[in-house]
Design goal:
Low-confidence stretches: none
Order of helices and strands: EEHEHHH
InterPro entries: GIY-YIG_endonuc, GIY-YIG_endonuc_sf
Number of strands: 3
CATH class: Alpha Beta
Protein name: GIY-YIG nuclease family protein
Oligomer: single chain
CATH topology: GIY-YIG endonuclease
Radius of gyration: 13 Å
Helix content: 40-55%
Strand order of the largest sheet: 2-1-3
Mean pLDDT: 95
Pfam families: GIY-YIG
Domain GIY-YIG: 1-79
Number of domains: 1
């Protein structure tokens, strides 16, 4: 199953938004161990936690959702995604989910 996920680092006070076609728990482990290289955004911290996860219809939907969330460029918006289930439902529909 494809997913869009949002990670949060307490030390950096930053969010990271990604999409994957595999196990989100494994992706989180890879981000925290620097598996994606020293120059990746997540390499500067090792305390990433899963903040929010969306189950997507397929990988292309997961990528559309990832891009939509990134385009908002807002930590407040990401916080509202966690707080308001109706906002999560709306963004899934806007990006082609069911």
């Amino acid at each position: 199953m494809a997913n869009t996920y949002i990670l949060y680092s307490k030390t950096r006070k930053k969010f990271y938004i990604g999409a994957c076609n595999n196990d989100v728990a494994k992706r989180l482990e890879n981000h925290n161990t620097g598996k994606y290289g020293a120059n990746s955004f997540t390499a500067t911290a090792n305390d990433w936690e899963l903040f929010l996860k969306f189950d997507c219809r397929d990988y292309s939907h997961a990528v559309r959702l990832e891009r939509k969330i990134k385009s908002m460029k807002s930590s407040k918006y990401i916080g509202n995604l966690l707080k308001y289930p109706e906002l999560r439902k709306k963004i899934l529909l806007e990006t082609g989910g069911s």
